[in-house]
Sequence to fold (334 residues):
Amino acid sequence: MTNKRNRNSVFITYQGLRKLEQAIIQAQNNEKDAKLTVQELSNRAKVSPTTFTRIRKSSHPVDRDSVKLVFKSLRLELDEDDFYQPSQQVPCSWDRAPDTTEFVGRSEQLQQLKKLVLVEKYRLVILQGIGGIGKTHLATLVAEQIQTKFEVVVWRSLVQAPPVEEYLTSILQFMLGALREEIEIASSFDAKLSQLMECLKKHRCLLILDNIETILSSNGQTGLYRAGYEGYSQLIRCIGEVAHNSCVLMTSREKPREILLLEGERTKVKCLKIEGLNLREGYELFEHLPRKFKYANKEQELQELIEYYKGNPFVLKIVAAQTQELFAGKIASF
Ligand SMILES: Nc1ncnc2c1ncn2[C@@H]1O[C@H](COP(=O)(O)OP(=O)(O)OP(=O)(O)O)[C@@H](O)[C@H]1O
Ligand SMILES: [Mg+2]
Fold:
């Protein structure tokens, strides 16, 4: 996920993206019968669909001339505030963060998250929702889009349930090096936690802690910790309670109990419930599936499918694959 940069590469700003999305909605509203596809929009702009999608996501640098073409095709002026040139490389450790190039929709949630993190300076934001709803992809994409506003970005998964000390060491190893903090990683848990909090106070760091429900107990009592993992409770409390300059994004199927006490505008801690994709986003998901998964244009059937599975992208992708295999794309018989 390293960024390729050249002289003409730019990132679209939050403002530029908003302009673009509003113009696309406007263009779609003007279109009476047919829905404007990515293919059609990119044809109009004379850029490839891949470039068009990249521009809309702003997760990777894009060619400025292509951005101009896209803006022009939607009758938009490209202002200086609509893009910026990546001047410095932010050290990022993405670990096992997923590839987000097939990400669709969620523009409202992306905007809301950017506002919370960049404007309102929230210190801890939890994306909570059921399995497969898209928390990890959303957290990763937003982190990619705002990475240049931070001094360091660290993404770490909890899926393998690492002991908390090991987890802290892995974060500190990258962070201390990237921030040129010449200190040795402490050996005790308490001291490691203090080192992390010092970094979060002294620097503007973005930390993504993925799938924290893994370390919560699953014996029916929501929000409690698995035996041996209580140190995570302290970690979450510290991140939420201590005044610092950084932002920690977490994803979880459950709400950790600390959050119930910490959540608030003053404390800068927020839990966002992530629901399924809406109908428009669901269609877009199907539109982006590889050719072999494509259906004939049966909107009614797709609508039923999206509604039945409540817009869960993981389930929709599985169903699309199975339907294709079993019934050659015939949803009705499925
Ligand atoms: N906005 C999206 N556009 C396209 N595909 C998506 C989107 N969100 C999620 N997906 C797909 O759905 C699947 C599940 O997404 P993700 O792993 O982010 O879910 P999750 O909520 O983190 O699930 P879990 O609780 O199991 O960790 C992935 O295969 C991903 O490709
Ligand atoms: Mg996940």
